[in-house]
Every structure is written in structure tokens, then in C-alpha cells.
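Dear colleague,

Thank you for sharing your sequence with our group. We've completed the structure prediction you requested, and as agreed, I am returning the results in plain text so they can be pasted directly into your records. Please verify that the sequence below matches your submission; if there's any discrepancy, let me know and we will rerun it promptly.
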Amino acid sequence: MKKTKTISLAPVADLSGEMQDFSPVSIAIGPQNEWCFLLVREYPPLIGGSFPSTVTKEQYHYKVIIMKGNEKKVIDLPDEKWNYHYVQTIDDDQVLLAGARSYYHDADHIEKNARVYTSAGQCIRSFCLGDGIQDLYVTDSNTIWTSYFDEGVFGNYGWDEPIGSKGLIHWDAFGRQLEWHDPKGEHYIDDCYAMNIVSNEEVWFYYYSDFHIGVRVEGHTDYYVPDVKGANLFAVKEDMLLMDGGYGNHDGFYELKRKGSRYRTQKHIRFIKPNGVAIRSSARSNRGNQLLFLDGTEVYYYEI
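Please find the predicted C-alpha cells below.
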């Protein structure tokens, strides 16, 4: 039985005013360590109750909140027909929104599921990042990393030759591919469960079916084997990993330490509020050694 370490976190922000009549879609730590929140007044319905639409018939009201230090910026997008899932800052003072899905109708009609907005809510460019996006991050050098879940790797939504077939792609700020994961030997990504941007040139990814961790630095990838399966989020600092609990336990975490090519669990980690109640996150994000949680309207932050 591994020892359990309890960590008490006080809320660092409260979004009760901004979330009045709005619900969280996702949160993210941006390239300048700002906090990004994507909210929607009403969730777009699923197709057949199972699959997210790409473009909606009705207009939906989104709101983007960017927080850094004592500064807060709110971008109102009241009349959107794109179904957005991810938010990041880009071009210093603009916002990148992306939908997880993109439909391939034919060679002349491929849905552009990534759009860049000004702080006034004007869309200034759009491009396609492929279908089946699992995670999306913008780097400090203004490039984009995307990872893909199984449908994005093997194809759906009309894609016979999916963009995300490599499982991991690096893009410039205008949607042009720079590099991608090269699945040599046993290191094929069937489904990229989690990703972390450590620096401009260092990306970590954790993938099925092997549940190995790849560490890609300037085009070269090394691989490690953690003893946690099914995690969706992790933070990293030096030879330590903080991974969520994997299958069936995504609110708990494990602290792992690298020994050779393996990461071994050292202890269980439990995050609690000052009143002793466990933090139950409706949305979470990571970047480098940082973790960000949204529980109700309260924001919690942890740094290894």
C-alpha cells in the first residue's frame, strides 16, 4: 500500500460572476502561463446523443476569459455556430478556439475547425487542425501542438486519410504542419491520452495502447514506461511525474519518480480544499509542472 499525501489548496480565483448563466467547456494554461477559460451558455446537443457536431444549426453564446496576475480579459462571442472545445492565447493578444471534430465532405470542402479571434471577438483567420483532437497547446514561440484520440488516428467524420494518423502534430500559427510523431517500431499512437508542453522545443505525450510516455525534444523522442494506465493528465518536473489516477480515478493523483527507463509510483496524492473536502474538477489543465482545476466556480492551482 502506497502512502497517501494530502495537499490542501486554497482557491486562487472565483468565476461566479462570469459563470452566471454559463457552464465550463474547458480550461487551459496558456503559453505565457495565463489562465484561459472557455464557457458556453448552453451546450450544443450531441448527434444521436453520442457524437459532437462540428457546425450547429442554432447559434450558441460562448465566452472566453483570460486571467494573468491581476488582469482579466473577457471576450464575448454571442453568435457562434462552431462547436468549440479548446482555448489558447496566440499572437500575443489574440485567442485560438478549436473544435475537436472536423468533417471531410470532399477535397474542396474540409471543415476548418480552428479559428483565431481578436480581443474584440472578430475572427481573423481559420484553418483545419484535423479531426479527433484530444489536446491542443500553443507554445511560447507561437506554434501549436495537437494530439489525437483514436477516431482522429484511424478516421471518422468522412476522413479516409485522417490528418491525425500520426497521433501528434506540430503546426505553425497559420495551420501549416512543421513536424509530427514518427511511429517507429512499437511506438505507434492508437490514442493519445494526454500531452504536456514543457518548453518551446519539448513536448511530452502519453498514449495507448502501450501507455508509454514519449519525450520529444527538437525532433528526437525518448520513451519511458510509467506504472499508471489510463491517465488523462500529468505534470512533470525533472525526474518526477504527477499523473492522475488513470482508469476510474481521475480526481486522484500519483507521484512517480523515474528510475532508468521507468516511472515508479511513490505515493498517492489527494488534493483538498481548506475545509477538507476533496477537489472535484469539472475542467482541468496542465503545462510543465503546473496543474489547474475548476471546481464549481472556484479555480485551484498547483505547481510541483
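Summary note from our side: The helical segments are 150-154.

Kind regards,
the structure core
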